[in-house]
Amino acid sequence: MKICCVIPTYNEEAFIGKTLASIASQTHLPKQVVVVNDNSTDDTQQIIDEYVVKHPWISSIYNSSENKHFPGSKVIRAFEKGFETLNNTFDVIIKLDADLILPNNYFERIVDVFKSDAKIGMAGGFAYIEKNGEWILENLTDKDHIRGAFKAYRKECFEQIGGLKPAMGWDTVDELLCKYYHWEVVTLPDLKVKHLKPTGATYDQSARYNQGEAFYTLGYGFLITTIAGLKLALRKGKPLLFIDYLKGFFKAKQTKKTLLVTKEQAEFIRKYRWKKIREKVF
């Protein structure tokens, strides 16, 4: 199976070299890797260029965008720019962050999963962060969720869900739509990815309401948003974030923010979420 990767990159001079080195050492090399320099102001491009010279399957493009970090939209707009340049003959598309160290068999394992069952639409490992000299699980999501930092999609699934949504919540709605269209999502707990920069490290205060808005645009409704928001705030160790999430939800509801899904998909999502909640409670 042919793998293509797109790596949106913004001011990652400290990490992008390690990410590209881990890709170059894969037991199953990708057919094409596009690194999108999303208006970086540091030496990110210089480091990218070093790898472009070494490896003909790595290329780089520049995307002119705002320097301000907008969770979801900025990174996916950059991803789209890179995706447009890909050769369309790939079997698997992987969206990667620029602050990762992949185990050298990451792509090999992903390919094995997709080959094992034609119904599998998405696959990925687990994120680990360094704390007190040890690599521990970055435990922000359920174990059946693939982190947005390293998502792999079967081409047919990626096309059916309509690609990635340029908004916060994109890495949740993709999996929900995957299930809506009867694809399976597979996580591999033993496939450990080193995440060099903790999630949310670059988010500023203005982004604190975005998660609540994302819950609204996913079609969750108030009750599911309350449960999901409280769980996420507690996992982050910041209970007061729950209030910001609710403010964001009601702000989006008041302004009638456009949903990321159709009414039918939103209904499916709510039923699916309630099913998962009941399974955990009972």
UniProtKB/TrEMBL annotation:
Give the species.
Answer: Paenimyroides marinum
Annotated family: Belongs to the glycosyltransferase 2 family.
- Record-linked InterPro entries: Glyco_trans_2-like, Nucleotide-diphossugar_trans
What's the protein called, per UniProt? Glycosyl transferase family 2
GO MF terms, alphabetically ordered: glycosyltransferase activity
| Stored Pfam families | Glycos_transf_2 (PF00535)
Keywords from UniProt, A to Z, are: Glycosyltransferase, Transferase
Which residue numbers delimit the Glycosyltransferase 2-like domain? Answer: 5-138
